[in-house]
Amino acid sequence: MFKEIDHYNEINTKLKFSNRIEDLRKKYQADKQYFSSRIHLLTPLQIQLESLLLDYENEIYFCREEPSLISHKLQILPKNEKFFDVNEINNDFPRRILREAGKMYKCAELGCEKIYTSLHGLKYHREKGHLSSDYDKKPYICAKTGCKKRYKNSNGLKYHLEHYHKCK
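That's the C2H2-type DNA-Zinc finger protein sequence above. Prediction below.
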């Protein structure tokens, strides 16, 4: 009688786990389609993070061992073992990654990878970040022979002259 109950419990556990894997695989497919439909709205960092998560889910749900083997391993793990929960991932991410994920305004200049959290930041970058020549960027030039230093403002040039071209 106990062997039948154990056998029934084992089959039931495998069936539940198999159904759970199938549900997760369906969710993965839906998430993948959703990601593809909105990729044009994401920043490069968001695309990289989302792709990383999708690749990880693909590895878990499609490329690993058969569900029956996994369920057997789950049965022998201690009951108080804390499992990694994908829903808790935001709690584990470093603040820098979360902060950068919120940056939505990317500079459209060819070769420029700057991304900003506000439209104002991007606007300022466009006005000040892509000036046409060194004369526009640093119009204050050191007049000492052989020195090619340039500065954005007169105070920078003044400091340079006082500290680097002292009378010796």
